Amino acid sequence: MNDGGPNHLESLTQPYDSRLLTQSHFRLIELIPGKWEDPLKCSLEQFTLDRPVSYRALSYAWGSSATTSPIQANGVEMQITKNLETALKNLREEAFAVTLWVDALCINQNDLDERQAQVQIMRDIYSCAASVVVFLGDGASHFTPSHYQPEKPADYTFPNDLENCLMLEVFLRQHGTLANVFGRGFEPFCLVALFAQHNSKHIDDLLGLGEKVLQELFEDLRMMLLSPWWSRIWVFQEIIVSKKISIQYGSSSVPWGVFRNASHNIYGCHATQSRRLQSENLKVLDLFRAKICDIEDGRKRWILGRHLRKNNAGAGLLAHLRDTNGRKASDDRDKVYALLGLLPYGLDIMADYHMTVSDVFIRTVRNIIRVTRNLDVLVGDLGRKNRNDLPSWIPDWSAIIHDKEILRSKCVTKVYNACKDLKFVCGSTLAHDSVFPLGSYREFIYASLIQKTVTGRGTYFVIQPDEDKAIRLLGHYTLPQPEYNLQVLLRDYIEILFGRLSVTASYVGEIIFSSDPFYASPDMKMIEQLCRQWATKLPSESAERPFIPQVTIDTLRALVFDLIFVEERFRRSRAGDEIHLQQWFRAKVSPTEKAYEDVLGFDDVLSFMSFRRRLFMTGDGKLGWGPNGLLPGDKVFVLPGGKVPFVIRGVDCSKPWSTGKMIGDCFLQGVMDGEQLEDSSSEDRVVAEECAPIIAEFTEPIRALSEKQRFKEHNDSSRRWEEALTKFASFAQELKSANRQKGLRHPCVLCLE
Can you give 301-353 as a three-state secondary structure string? Predict the structure, then answer.
């Protein structure tokens, strides 16, 4: 390195020295030159982001840590996975050193503080790299590379301009033989390159190679697409923010633009030739196209997202969380942390590997609600959880959700408006943005009085049994200073019950009957019979029974979610659609009815929207579609900020407030357009999170403690705590009154657990 280069520090005497590594510093390795069979050696140096340095960043899958290989870093032996060893050997040069950023080597993985500090600048590391090298393996196996190659295959880098690439001509003439020279990764890249160019003659030549040859080529491509790299969560950030990308498979390399062009051309200029392939080979092309489009769509969203306002950044994070649902992370916290670099704003979420996975997911959901002021993040299959330590209302981002459910969640928040644009804010927004001083009441409560207990039934907060410690601390932390905002204090108290969501909701009705979940398009004849059967069993005081003597148009609308599917989009049904809906229904239930052309896509609506959903009927005869986990006895509520109603279990509406378990969102006839909200004179269309449940839970233990004789000796502390609790209760009542003036019919305070 010369003096005019980057601002680098002295070479480390040990593999890691975090004392030198600050927020603006990162490490790079210099890969020492060597032959294929030589042991791997590198030096580690530190650099700052504020001055440029030329390096390549490696994007790869770690692979199994069951078997490892050694590398010398600054003379100290370290262990790396076999996949990383293969990548470094393929990137190493014989004549000169190669400068790389490799996470497994450049970050001390055993230092949690360093890991989370480096995660904060991961986007900068990849975006500042001269190029990003994606290593997919060596082509010997789609899961573990071959580790017994006697020598490195010949390198070949495909050019951006493929129109005059003579190697493709050689490939078409000598297919099957070049793999011995360039390795197993060469021929799949040739196949992609043929589709990337606009020369249709080469595709015709490819199709003329014979089915056996084509089958082998497409199988090699399929194996490349099964590389673990494609399913990694960190890939989304690593490749999306990069300036220049090359894909390396063994010793062959191709620019990312070749992959992108091929995915466009498969059903573009080469569509006719593509359809001549056998179905199995066409499926491989579809898989290839899906993986490339997934990343390209992410790149487009990131470019657009850089200009989003902060309140839209929450929606952006939610979109990324859903779009990357199928991607894997060795640490579930990275399901969130790997996406933070794609946001224009941090949303008060920082990578913190000291936090539990459940707390990371809870904090993420609360922050999304806080900035979006809606409950879109709660829409979806909340019952599909891999973890038992999450509240019912928190999605499990580590669970795999079906693509149909993800698309349904996106759709319903766009076409319905059950809350009539009434907003909702979490408790953390009761006050203006404030910085908590060290030793604030939140930290005090966490550290001294409140103990978090996790059981199989949920998370609880209890008073610690150390009475002497409690009395001593209460005597020291008596009451806040007069200038301390009461609302800020309430925010502290709401943080105590971090895993709960307290909200004033509008009670709609109780579910009386429900069907089994549907996994295929429902049989309308069976549904008609089921609904007639339910209607005859409704309590006599129920509203009109819509299936006797005939099916009403409102009932039909409910059966198809009040939607149509035209021009590849779901839309609300409109005046005039009733005739088509009735004709469609008669054709479905009557064997003598003539066939009907489904011009408004009711079949598509029903097949898509009913997947893993249950049909249900409430006590007043309304029909709806709800989550897989609903049961008779569950209740339906409209929540402020909720574009759709929600099914909640265990609520007692006769109490001032009641705990409940959220089952999921639903469709319910007659409440999807804000019918549960009265016209309100309030100009403030925002409902704040209730604090009465939190204060009630906290008040009783404090008062019980204050009754003890030893605590009474601290009269001043006891009196001032009583005054504070009285003020909190008064504020809670004022907040409750304000929320009830927002027009919610049949209001009920829910504390979701």
Answer: HHHHHCCCCHHHHHHHHHHHHHHCCCCECCCCCHHHHCCHHHCCCCCCCCCCC
SS3 744: strand
Instruction: DSSP for 348-393, please give it.
Output: T----TTS-HHHHHHHHHHHHHHHH-S-GGG-S-TT--S-SSS-TT
Q: How far is CA 115 from the centre of its chain?
A: 21
Q: Is the dihedral of CA 237, 243, 247, 248 positive or negative?
A: negative
Whether residue 362 contacts residue 417, with contact meaning beta carbons closer than 8 Å, is answered with no
| Position 448 confidence tier, pLDDT thresholds 50, 70, 90 | very low
So what's the pLDDT on residue 479? 36
Q: Would you say 362 and 498 are in contact if contact means Cβ atoms under 8 Å apart?
A: yes
Q: Using an 8 Å Cβ cutoff, are 498 and 364 in contact?
A: no
**Cα–Cα–Cα angle for 154, 63, 247, rounded to 5 degrees:** 40
Q: Following DSSP, what letter does each residue of 409-439 receive, concatenated?
A: HHHHHHH--TTTT-EEE-GGGSSS--PPPTT
Mean pLDDT of 190-209: 85
Closest by CA position to 664, among listed 637, 693, 640, 641:
637
Q: What angle do CA 425, 431, 436 make, to 5 degrees?
A: 120
Mean pLDDT of the chain: 79
Element (H or E) spanning 470, and its range? helix 467-476
- Cα(100)–Cα(511) distance, integer angstroms: 60
Instruction: For helices 166-174 and 186-196, give the axis angle rounded to 10 degrees.
Output: 120
pLDDT tens digits, one per residue of 496-523: 445 788 888 999 999 999 999 999 888 8
Quote the pLDDT of residue 473: 40
pTM, whole model, 2 decimals? 0.82
Element (H, E) at 741: none
Count CA atoms within 13 Å of residue 583 on its CB side: 13
